Amino acid sequence: VFVCSAATAIAATAPAPPYYIITSAETPSLNRPGLTPVGKQRAEDCIPAVFSQFNIGFILSCTVDKDGEEGLGCPIANETTTPLAQALGLNITYCGTGEESNDDCVHDKIQAFLKASNQSALVVWGPHPYRGQWEARGTNFDELHRTRWSGV
Questions:
Q1: Residue 59's closest CA among 34, 81, 42, 35?
Q2: Residues 83, 51: contact at Cβ < 8 Å?
């Protein structure tokens, strides 16, 4: 009985698995579409090599809104994460962007996954569209940008 009680107490106090937020790999200047050759290489080689070690079980990204005005960084975010999703055998889950999207989608989907799993989650977003949303949750994008890919 003591062993079961101790195991239950330990399990009840275990922290939730982490979730990671990254932006897309390098993009061309002048708002040209897609990833640069370096960005494509990072998406295909570096990101899967690094994140395959983090017990990722859920990947979340974004879609362009219906009007095509918001979420314009989403295609490159998806291009960045697709090789990792394929390497891990995962489907990518999406949240919409724009005024008609659910503002709680990202939070709700991550929390639902983390409550039901002992694996980590990865959020891959475009470089700028939801900067305010992430900053409201305590993410410092200036620091993130300075340290992005360091050591990779």
A1: 81
A2: no
SS3 105: helix
HSE value, Cβ hemisphere, 13 Å, CA-based, for 115: 6
Strand bridging mode 56-62 / 120-125: parallel
Domains of the chain: 16-147 (3.40.50.1240)
Best CA proximity match to 96, nearest among 128, 130, 121, 122: 130
Say which residue, 119 or 138, is predicted with more confidence: 119
User: Length of the chain in residues, anyone?
Assistant: 152
What are the residues whose beta carbons fall under 8 Å from the beta carbon of 47, sequence distance 6 or more? Answer: 22, 25, 80, 81, 83, 84
pLDDT in tens, 17-28: 888 888 887 777
- Residue 36: phi and psi, rounded to 5, are -70, 170
Long-range pairs, 145-152, Cβ under 8 A, ≥24 = 145/23, 148/22, 148/23, 149/42, 149/46, 152/42, 152/46, 152/50
